[in-house]
Amino acid sequence: MLKNRRENLITRMIQLSSEGQDCQNCPGTCCTFQSNSMMSTPLETSEILIWLHSTQQKTESLKEKIQNTISQYRLDQLTGYGRRSFLRRTYTCPFFNHKELGCPLPPEKKPYGCLAFNAHHKVEKAGEFCFSETEELIRREEDNQAWEASINEKLKLKHKLWWDKLPMPVALIEMWNMDLSNEDLL
Ligand code: SF4
Ligand code: SF4
Hints:
Layout: H1 7-18, E1 39-40, H2 42-54, H3 60-72, H4 112-116, E2 117-119, E3 130-132, H5 134-159, E4 166-167, H6 168-175
Antiparallel strand pairs: 1-4, 2-3
The structure holds iron/sulfur cluster (SF4) (2 copies).
Residues 31, 36, 38, 93, 95-96, 103, 105, 110-111, 114 line the site of one iron/sulfur cluster (SF4).
């Protein structure tokens, strides 16, 4: 179950790539403040944090970088409408390496929205012909909805989380010190 939840998104990405519609020669526009506003659920956030921990990349310097991203792009500001919800703001992703193919996260750990955003042109590769595979996202969601909802509820209960989705850097800091394990995601 763990590795299959992104299968259709990865298959689609590989298919486009085999046709030359990939991210080679692109500076990574979709990972920067120009168009990135990725949000993350407790489940997606846990997967990233567990992977960072297991690969010795969950460091204080990364935490500082994530916190700086939150400050710089004011990602932790509430809407002000009396509800605990956040404005969807764009930001340069703290994981982005500022180079071609600049995401260090493996496909099986990336947020679904990142995986579904693909190039659709063999030559122009700086965002002009890139868009989200909405149909694939919906198919993925339909195939996993019930199971994921129960895992997210379990994580919310166990870690006393009040949110369903947050800007990814805010979600990472909210869950940074929590005791997370793959068993929680089964
Ligand atoms: S997680 Fe990776 S693909 Fe997604 S915005 Fe960040 S650097 Fe880009
Ligand atoms: S999806 Fe588009 S904008 Fe994002 S890295 Fe690939 S080619 Fe560049």
